[in-house]
Recover the amino acids of this structure.
């Protein structure tokens, strides 16, 4: 097996190494800059967008603002591009440690339609983002005041002056922000003819003794966006207590029931007279319970990709915990996730073809194709729709063609070959299925089942319990990704992930036991579905979040939100379905091994 795999592995290594370098270089390189007094400090303009729609951003120069004759763009790392950054040089002239007061920036003539454009943006609470020495500086474009019920007044003003405050330590910049505290907004109300205005700015330098290495913390402590995610310990403890009670309950009950079942069955065996009396239960189906299910290839592909995401999720959380990311820019996580996804494709291939071989499958190519496309096809479809909408609206979140090509290359040169290699290894390493009981040729008839043992009921129970264990946390995660909150309790995230998986496994074992005790042996697909349905609950929650808990609006943001919520729900389906199946399989092996056979 290894001999078959090795040469292929060798030829994939060089492009892989190159890619790693390319992806990580922008983060590894120290971009630290030292200045002398009077050195120019470049301020880049980045993006603007509605405050409540984090994934809808536009190029700063799309608005009628002070712009240079020739727009000069800055080259960006992959993470920055994925994050919707599009930096360009600004017309602000800032010099290191030189204070400036009311410096004119530019004279602007605004037509009526341009004023209308600005008013529109201010009404949608547009904020802007500049970047100075890698520090994001954010502020609102304008000012809006609504007051009085009758008569209703509606005032809109533009910030035509900005105060920059920059903190420095010796020869390095530590912190920067922009404030409009002492500024009067320039009114844009009742404009009927073109108007001209002068933009101005001030720069104030403050010495500080915060070390350069600590500037990330300084940034996090005084962010433009609110920081309100600290006080949910109680709800976490609450859900943890609930979960432990639940788990304890399931484990204890199952242990007792199993013990008495086993005692009874194994006793029956010796005094074989009262056979027909006590024998209805899971023992009687031992000749059917290991009969392989239909659609094996699909089942194995789900297990493969599910395992891959379990590894990926754990990997990312651990990396964030170890502080390997520059967390105040999301892009770092995005590009690391893409790289890790490509690298973990071998896990998917391995697990999928391993199970497929054990279940006696022989359509290898089909199995591998199914495994590679099980996630990448839905992802690509969703992404194309979302990207087209961004592109049609001129949002900077639309990926440029070069980035798309790069991502495709990553998938073609790394993801797909690694799936194939994993598949070859998995197939060659796989042995027998090692079922503890022999399967008879003729399948037993399954007696009619009561309604509470039907698949929809099991799916409702098996989906709701894991979901309720994480529902509180889900709010914070959604608020971080789709809102402006900042999540910093990554340790909690890890605990919640562990809780989710263990609740899923326990529920799955309990439901499988109930199913088998009704002499229904079709547990393979049922176990995947019953806990995998957590994904459905997560999608329903995301609909609830959109309508009730967020201020998102507009086509661009909605398409992005629902597209990626669907993918998230799908990933949860794959992960929990896998955990659930493997837990059930281990459980079933365990109980039938302990059964004394004739
Ligand atoms: C900006 O930074 C200055 C100097 O550190 C500080 O005094 C001020 O409160 C900050 N303003 C805002 C709006 O954060």
């Amino acid at each position: 097996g290894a001999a078959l795999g090795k040469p292929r592995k060798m030829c994939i290594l060089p492009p892989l190494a190159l890619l790693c370098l390319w992806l990580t270089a922008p983060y590894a390189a120290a971009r630290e800059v030292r200045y002398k007094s009077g050195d120019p400090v470049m301020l880049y303009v980045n993006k603007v967008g509605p405050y409540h729609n984090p994934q809808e951003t536009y190029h700063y120069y799309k608005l009628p603002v002070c712009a240079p004759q020739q727009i000069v763009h800055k080259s960006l790392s992959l993470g920055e591009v994925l994050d919707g950054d599009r930096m360009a040089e600004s017309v602000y002239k800032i010099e290191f440690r030189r204070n400036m007061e009311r410096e004119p920036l530019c004279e602007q003539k605004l037509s009526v339609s341009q004023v209308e454009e600005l008013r529109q943006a201010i009404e949608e609470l547009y904020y802007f983002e500049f970047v100075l020495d890698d520090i994001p500086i954010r502020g609102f474009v304008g000012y809006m005041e609504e007051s009085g019920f009758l008569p209703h007044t509606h005032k809109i003003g533009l910030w035509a002056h900005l105060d920059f405050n920059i903190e420095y330590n010796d020869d390095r910049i530590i912190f920067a922000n922009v404030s409009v505290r002492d500024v009067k907004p320039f009114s844009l109300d009742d404009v009927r003819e073109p108007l001209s205005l002068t933009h101005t700015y001030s720069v104030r330098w403050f010495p500080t003794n915060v070390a350069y290495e600590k500037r990330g913390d300084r940034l996090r402590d005084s962010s433009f966006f609110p920081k309100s995610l600290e006080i949910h310990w109680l709800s976490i403890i609450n859900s943890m207590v609930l979960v432990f009670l639940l788990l304890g309950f399931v484990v204890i009950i199952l242990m007792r029931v199993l013990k008495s079942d086993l005692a009874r069955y194994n006793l029956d065996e010796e005094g074989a007279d009262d056979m027909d009396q006590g024998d209805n239960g899971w023992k009687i189906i031992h000749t059917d319970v290991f009969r392989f299910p239909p659609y094996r290839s699909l089942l194995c592909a789900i297990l493969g990709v599910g395992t891959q995401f379990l590894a990926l999720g754990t990997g990312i959380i651990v990396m964030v915990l170890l502080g390997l990311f520059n967390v105040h820019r999301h892009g770092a996580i995005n590009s690391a996730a893409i790289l890790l996804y490509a690298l973990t494709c071998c896990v998917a291939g391995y697990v999928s073809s391993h199970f497929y071989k054990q279940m006696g499958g022989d359509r290898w190519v089909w199995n591998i194709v199914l495994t590679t496309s099980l996630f990448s096809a839905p992802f690509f479809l969703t992404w194309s729709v979302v990207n087209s909408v961004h592109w049609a609206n001129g949002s900077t979140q639309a990926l440029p063609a070069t980035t798309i090509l790069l991502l495709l290359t990553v998938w073609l040169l790394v993801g797909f070959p690694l799936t194939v290699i994993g598949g070859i290894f998995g197939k060659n390493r796989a042995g027998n299925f090692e079922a503890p009981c022999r399967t008879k040729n003729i399948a037993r008839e399954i007696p009619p089942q009561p309604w509470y043992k039907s698949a929809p009921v099991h799916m409702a129970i098996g989906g709701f319990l894991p979901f309720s264990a994480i529902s509180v946390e889900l709010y914070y995660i959604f608020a971080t990704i789709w809102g402006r909150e900042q999540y910093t309790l990554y340790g909690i995230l890890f605990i919640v992930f562990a809780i989710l998986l263990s609740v899923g496994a326990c529920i799955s074992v309990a439901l499988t036991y109930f199913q088998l005790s009704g002499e229904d042996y079709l547990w393979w697909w049922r176990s995947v579905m019953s806990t995998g349905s957590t994904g459905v609950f997560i999608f329903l929650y995301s609909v609830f979040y959109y309508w009730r808990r967020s201020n998102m609006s507009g086509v661009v943001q909605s398409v992005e939100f629902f597209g990626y919520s669907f993918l998230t729900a799908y990933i949860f389906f794959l992960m929990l379905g896998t955990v659930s199946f493997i837990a059930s399989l281990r459980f079933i092996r365990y109980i039938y091994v302990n059964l004394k056979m004739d």
The pocket of 2-acetamido-2-deoxy-beta-D-glucopyranose is lined by residues 165, 167, 177, 179, 206, 222 (CB under 6 Å). The mean pLDDT is 87. The longest strand covers residues 195-207.
